[in-house]
Amino acid sequence: MNGLLNIFRRKKQKQELPKRKIYCIPGFGADDKIFTNLSIDNAELIFINWLKPLPKESYKNYVLRMAEKIQEPAPVIIGVSFGGMVALEIAKTRPVKQVILVSSIKNTDELPGKWKLIGRLRLNHIFPIQRIQANERFFAMANKRLGALTKEEQDFANHYRRIIDKEYMIWALNQILNWRNAEVPANVVHIHGDADLIFPIKPLKPTHIIHGGTHMMIMNRAAEISAIINKVVKDVK
User: What are the entry keywords (predicted)?
Assistant: First the structure.
């Protein structure tokens, strides 16, 4: 009888394990909705959506403000695209148990060469970015590069393009083009698609490759990404 009670107690304790908090940072201009299709076992996803940059705010101070929502002393962070770059910057400011990058890059060497050139020549300050961003014909080209394949995905991406805060857009694009990072923590997992046209896979060294995955795979390949994250998080102590 006592043996059966002990088994019941252990089973109950296992079922009542507290959910692990996982902090999620979306990609450029997006919000928590891009994580909708993820299915992470026994986890509470806490979303850190983009803040509006303050006048003359440094990138470091912006990163610290983004990190204020993190309560754990050593968190697990998932960062998508630009969100992954910010996750790595957060990891410079505090201990982090695990950084999981999706469709992102780890250091300056992985930033596409033409992007570095645009940043170095400050061409992003010359091009009428706001007018280009508002051009509907631009949407079709941008969706192709993003990997938004279905009408639902295209409508989703177009929605963010229409509502994006212009000050944030100009600021964030400048941070991406001029990102300088050489530090890559040992506890980084990098999930990348080999059909990503935003950050082409050729110069990258991801730990996991999603074959046929585009830059939008956080939504349309979420089951495969979830399986990888579940395995990774399960092994994190």
Answer: Hydrolase
Angle, nearest 10°, between helix axes 113-120 and 166-177?
110
Backbone torsions φ then ψ of 146, nearest 5 degrees: -70, -30
3-state class of 137 per DSSP?
helix
Task: Enumerate the β-bridge partners of residue 189.
Answer: 100
Look at the domain 19-235 and name its fold.
Rossmann fold (3.40.50)
Are 193 and 215 in contact, with CB atoms under 8 Å apart? Answer: yes
Residues (pLDDT < 70) of the chain are 1-17, 115, 117-137
* Beta carbons of 66 and 85 less than 8 angstroms apart: no
Q: For residue 141, what pLDDT is reported?
A: 81
What pLDDT is stored for residue 143 in this prediction? 86
Q: What is the pLDDT of residue 185?
A: 86
Q: Where are the domains of the chain?
A: 19-235
**According to DSSP H, which parts of the chain are helical?**
2-15, 59-66, 82-91, 113-120, 129-133, 136-146, 151-163, 166-177, 217-220, 222-235
Would you give the DSSP letter of residue 231? H
Q: Which of 50, 89, 91, 58 is nearest to 74 (CA)?
A: 91
- Residue 7 CA to residue 9 CA, distance in Å, equals 5
pLDDT at residue number 219:
94
